Amino acid sequence: MASSSDASSSAGSSPEQPGSGNASEAAGATGSANVSEFFEGAGKVAERRGRVRARRAAVMAVPATLVAATLAVLTAQGALGVQFAISGMPFTVTATEMKGTGFEQFGALDNMIKDSPNEGDTGGQVLVVTSAIKTATITKLCQSVDLGGINLLIKAGGNGTPVSATDLTLDGTELAGDASFDDIEIGNDASTLDRAGVKGPAGVFGQQSRTVTIANLRSTNYATTAAVFKLPGLKLSFSASGC
């Protein structure tokens, strides 16, 4: 029969049971595995969040892109007019002759900036007649604006090559000259006009023709736009007198 000292010695030297291992070592291994799994999971969550944010940004960008593209298409088709705040200072345009193909006319309102010094008693709005011409040639063009005692003068198209323009619009209050029209229509609703590719306001009086010729043109305008405006022999100067 073994003594108590032998039993103690035997207990201290007995081999560990399979799978038991050192407690601290097991805890350390478990902790390392948890930390590794935590960072791996965090990385996946961050990646998913990044993808979600990217998708949201893309979705938010789509409407703005579509709006910009739609406006560009509508403007190119003439469904929307290119508008800007007018200065409120009228300018005079004269020419020995203007010829155009695809002509429209209708009433409109031009607007100045808020509290413009030129608004006077107009409230910042000017009632104008918009003349739209798909393609035009202008012989001996003269344009002048009174700057208060001195005129800014622009001349072009007087050396045998006329001024040419496409998608030309003139917003004016007076128009005079010797005019002739081919295939004219008078009394159209301005929103149905189609000869120059520009639509006026619904319910507004309009007229259009296949061609227009105006000799000895003289007009008072507040705005002019054109897709292309070529001015051969351009000369800009100041003068005591206008056109």
Order of helices and strands: HHEEEEEEEEE
Largest sheet: 9 strands, antiparallel
Structural class: alpha+beta
Could you report the average pLDDT, rounded to the nearest whole number? 79
Helix content: 25-40%
User: Would you report the number of β strands?
Assistant: 9
Rg measurement, Å: 40 Å
Which descriptor suits the 3D outline?
globular
Which short descriptors sum up this protein?
nine-stranded antiparallel beta sheet, disordered N terminus, 9 strands, alpha+beta, 243 residues, single chain
Give the SSE map:
Layout: H1 4-13, H2 23-77, E1 91-111, E2 125-139, E3 141-146, E4 151-156, E5 163-182, E6 185-189, E7 205-225, E8 228-230, E9 235-239
Antiparallel strand pairs: 1-2, 1-3, 1-7, 2-5, 3-4, 4-9, 5-7, 5-8, 6-7
Describe the fold and architecture.
This protein has 243 residues and is of the alpha+beta class. The chain is built from two helices and nine strands; from the N terminus they run ααβββββββββ. Strands 1, 2, 3, 4, 5, 6, 7, 8 and 9 form a nine-stranded antiparallel β-sheet that branches. It starts with a helix and ends with a strand. The relative contact order is 0.17. Residues 1-30 and 49-82 have low confidence and may be disordered.
In short:
27% of the residues lie in helices and 42% in strands.
